[in-house]
Amino acid sequence: MRKNREIKIWGVRGSAPRPEADHLEFGGNTTCISVDCGDDLVVLDAGSGLSALGRALAAGGDRRSIHILLSHLHLDHVMGLFSFSPLHNPKAEIHIYAQVASFHKLETLVGPPFWPVGLSDCPASVSFHELWADEHFSFNGLDGYTMAGNHPNGSLLYRLEFPDPAQTETKKSLTYALDCEADASTLPSLTEFSHKTDLLIWDACFMSDDLRPGWGHSTWEQGIRVRKAAQAGTVLMTHYSQDYSDSFLRIQKEKAARMDPACQFAKEGMVITL
Q1: Given 18, 27, 157, 191, which is the most exposed site by the fewest CB atoms within 10 A?
Q2: Whole-angstrom distance, CA of residue 273 vs CA of residue 255
């Protein structure tokens, strides 16, 4: 019998970690979310939260295949690779997915002289998979789709679909839409990409009052509008600016809940079940 998918939050910040007392209620690590797919573990981005995920996998003796889907190579989305303990486990099987022409850049970053051990030197079995925008990929019953994000240097958005454990003829889905500026030219395709998804994971890096056009990010207000237009089930806000304290985010969370009860704000350690 198929199990429900557990989605766990390991990092919620954008740009840089903020491990300070007034940021730890929501979390100080940069973006990382895991999706339990039974025989496979899918990881959405490799921010600093990936380190804690790696420690949890090592402590539990987890031997599943790990599929890391990178939205792009900005440091806040890959810094967790430096300390991801499964890379040093010779029994681990790790697949890394990213935009076409990313991997020589990633191997340059995670290796000398910036880091003593390169990805190709790690004992784990590491495979690279390059993806274009508007591409379909799959493994072990999971179907993935990509969309180009509106972000400096480019980004990929992901939609994941997998069988519904309650009804095998239908599918559950989540859409991962971080580091994408929801401007007028992007909104129609973004709404279509998210159509009737069960969970929309949204870039809430800025609030409306301090949104910075051209920076490649969005607001929770825009996320609610897309959720409604796309007829999505739940919208999960994350990738908060490092400048936003816990008290500030609590206020935003309350405002958003009044506007849309289907809106949630991510916290590190939160688990969502699909």
Answers
A1: 191
A2: 24
pTM of the predicted model, to two decimals? Answer: 0.95
CA neighbor of 36 nearest in space, from 67, 60, 78: 67
Comparing C-alpha atoms, which of 69, 90, 91 is closest to residue 81? 69
Residue 241: half-sphere exposure toward Cβ, Cα within 13 Å = 19
Q: How many helices (H) and strands (E) does the chain have?
A: 5, 14
Per the structure block, which two tokens stand in for 106?
């990633």
For residues 32 and 53, the answer to whether their CB atoms sit within 8 Å is yes
- pLDDT tens digits, residue range 33-89? 999 998 899 999 999 999 999 999 999 888 889 999 999 999 999 999 999 999 999
Query: What's the order of all strands across the beta sheet hosting 263-265?
Result: 136-139, 142-149, 155-163, 171-177, 199-203, 234-238, 263-265
